Amino acid sequence: MGRFRAAPPAASKYVTPAGARRLRAELEQLWSEERPRVTQAVAAAAAQGDRSENAEYTYGKRRLREIDRRVRFLRRRLEGMVVVNEPPSDTDRVFFGAWVQLETEDGLRTRYRIVGPDEFDMAPGYISMDSPLGRALLRRRTDEEVTVETPAGPRVYLIMSIEYERG
């Protein structure tokens, strides 16, 4: 058996203005604050002599690699991002950025916002458009039912309302 691993499917490139600001702020913080601080700590640890038994040097170099990896990822990711400022022309359907109120078969109501994969952890109720529920909701209308496969079995949701925020 070889070591080949198929690449994961590419994540969607859409992001809200708030999500884009958060990613840019993280990139700026890593590049202009954390990386210089860690670089200085590594230089100070290297000046102490024997690097093979110097834990501060070893862990500092490891942290620099982590920072550089994240910086490369953020730069590549931001380069191809599409910032969605306005709602779609057809606001009767679920698209990126929509707030969708759903009702389950047992009458439980929940409200979700469809966002990009880089920002679903920004607030409660945000779900990625690449998630099973997010994919099932896209392009659907109010009063349509969607079925989503969950570990506990299929779950049916009724779309109660669709709303969009302005820019």
Summarize the entry for a quick read.
The protein has 167 residues and is of the alpha/beta class. Helix content is 37%, strand content 22%. The chain has 2 domains: 14-83, Helix Hairpins (Orthogonal Bundle); 99-163, Chitinase A, domain 3.
Describe the fold and architecture.
By secondary structure, this protein is an alpha/beta fold. The chain has 2 domains: 14-83, Helix Hairpins; 99-163, Roll (Chitinase A, domain 3), CATH 3.10.50. It is built from 3 helices and 7 strands, in the order E-H-H-E-E-E-E-H-E-E. It has helices at 17-46, 55-79, 132-137, and strands spanning 14-15, 82-83, 99-104, 109-115, 126-128, 145-150, 153-163. It has a 5-stranded mixed beta sheet with strand order 5-4-3-7-6. A hairpin with a 4-residue loop joins strand 3 and strand 4. It is elongated and about 70 Å long. The mean pLDDT is 90.
Give the count of helical stretches. 3
Structural class: alpha/beta
Described by the principal axes of the CA atoms, the overall outline is elongated
Low-confidence stretches: none
Note the gap between the termini: 51 Å
How are the secondary structure elements laid out?
Elements: E1 14-15, H1 17-46, H2 55-79, E2 82-83, E3 99-104, E4 109-115, E5 126-128, H3 132-137, E6 145-150, E7 153-163
Parallel strand pairs: 1-2, 4-5
Antiparallel strand pairs: 3-4, 3-7, 6-7
Helix pairs in contact: 1-2
Keywords:
Chitinase A, domain 3; 167 residues; five-stranded mixed sheet; alpha/beta; Helix Hairpins; two-stranded parallel ribbon
